[in-house]
């Protein structure tokens, strides 16, 4: 009840803010301009990061920042993919880790075992993920909610078990990715490569969400029945959400295998699913900046906790840091869910709301 | 034939365990809307407590069991107040993720208090090594105990939900929370009862499973939990008998497939691998859901406009 009242008030206040069309459109243009500027600053910052870091800390410091940032950028792609599917199209998929793992294995198989060119490998891996997305998206038309969550979680477990079976059948310990093009074996080059792909993916997703597809997803998220009544083809848009999400997750999986130079069946596991979901929920459902903030949270937290001395003594209790990492991770996730249920990206919203409120007060006086 | 019957019995026993877990999962999901992925961690924590009581102060098994059940009630109450209350008004999906986080936290707490439970430990019970031989059919004591406990628990829960004020209020709440509150039922207290009750079922299930496998560790529930979830969804997620039957079906499928596939290979592929078995079970599960999206015993989901 209270929230409804607040929303009505907010709507009323919005009405009173707009004295004329011009101001509203000016504000709108300003915000578009601001997003563009933020993007540009972001790109420059990302481009200069390794150089700045090397200038400050020197080349041979133990903690390799660009390496970690590469990993975070890959996670961010996966987070964007999960967010398109779960945050925007409201499909509670716990199955994205399956696309992540399968794609990594396909890339490794094509490039290492069949000696195909790396680019062919990446493209086939992404296409195969998209195809898997169609297979999963089909049942999702009939199954929904908690049922879908469990069914997709099953997919992750099956994929993990089968990939592991493939490893044992082939009698190998690690599935290493060899024949990576020379220029990608350099950490810095890989960093720029992944960063460039991330920028392209952000650009794509940003425009996708504002295109017809994105608006259809938002409509079916808010009310499936109403969306259907307005003539939105649920089948088409749900399957599209799954396919796009699967393809992007597959891209992330292939990049991850390139970064780690190995594919492992743990890429399709419950832990990976938790990591994906943590990113979008801590960051903010349906938000692009949220996906990136979430990836930073998930990527950096283990690194930061890894800096602690191990084993850590708390009173008489001796704790292995690896154990502690999991627990702290879970605890922070819980706290984030309880105190910021709409994600870290909403913090920016709170800030701009405050600014707007202060401005308004100044204006009325 | 005898061997097959033996497999069916084994399937019924593991199925009962899945069914019990599914029962606890459905109990919480129906009344509070929490899809509880921390259920395995709760069960493991309680079983670990039981193990420590038996090995540490060398308590009698039965005394340890009683203390464990009390411990489970306390855990349930703590979780309801400390966890379920704060996330009560978040969307269903967020709640489900919160329970995944809760599972990580509970597991870490367990590892911090009992580091020895990081690896499997021998769980000694009075049932170990006792068995009944019926015309060549072999019943181990723990299997019989599991079947009896499952039947009694199901009966008890059914009586509780259909005959007592609390139970009826609980079912009413699952249908309509606001209306139940208006009828004067204390919703907060029912939430407490639900969590305590489901923690109790988790503890029982954990101890039974550990007795059957004769080992316990803090992760020993992980492989079982997912199959229990599948059983719960197969049963429809909103009916208690459905959950039990769903769990039993999964247990039967698991054992029978294991029996049929054992020792077979397909070229270089070893199809008796558990991975193949899981794949077949999940494949069948998804097929069933395609024909009955609401599960075998669930009510069809109505969309209100």
Task: Give descriptors for this structure.
heterodimer, A: 365 residues, ABC transporter involved in vitamin B12 uptake, BtuC, two-stranded antiparallel sheet, 14 helices, 4 strands, globular, B: 305 residues, mainly alpha, 70% helix
Structure report:
The complex is a heterodimer of chains A (about 375) and B (about 300). Chain A has about 375 residues and is an all-alpha fold. Chain A has one domain: ABC transporter involved in vitamin B12 uptake, BtuC. About 5% of the residues of chain A have low confidence. Chain B has a single domain, classed as Orthogonal Bundle (ABC transporter involved in vitamin B12 uptake, BtuC), CATH 1.10.3470. Helix content of chain B is about 70%, strand content about 5%. Chain B is built from eleven helices and six strands. In chain B, strand 5 and strand 6 form a beta hairpin. In chain B, helix 5 packs across helix 6. The longest helix of chain B has about 30 residues. The model of chain B has no long low-confidence stretch (mean pLDDT about 85). Classes of the chains: A mainly alpha (about 375), B mainly alpha (about 300). At the A-B interface, helix 6, helix 9, helix 11, strand 4 and helix 13 of A face helix 4, helix 9, strand 6 and helix 11 of B.
CA-atom Rg of chain A in angstroms: 22 Å
Uncertain ranges of chain B:
none
Give the low-confidence spans of chain A: 9-21
Integer average pLDDT of chain B: 84
What is the CATH T-level topology of chain A?
ABC transporter involved in vitamin B12 uptake, BtuC
Instruction: Give the count of structural domains of chain A.
Output: 1
Largest Cβ-defined interface: A-B, 48 and 54 residues
Count of individual domains of chain B: 1
Reading the helices and strands of chain A in chain order gives HHHHHHEHHHHEHHEEHH
Residue-averaged pLDDT of chain A, rounded?
Answer: 79
From the helix content, strand content and strand pairing of chain B, which structural class follows? mainly alpha
CATH class category name of chain A: Mainly Alpha
- Rounded radius of gyration of chain B (Å): 20 Å
How far is it from the N-terminal to the C-terminal residue of chain A, by CA? Answer: 31 Å
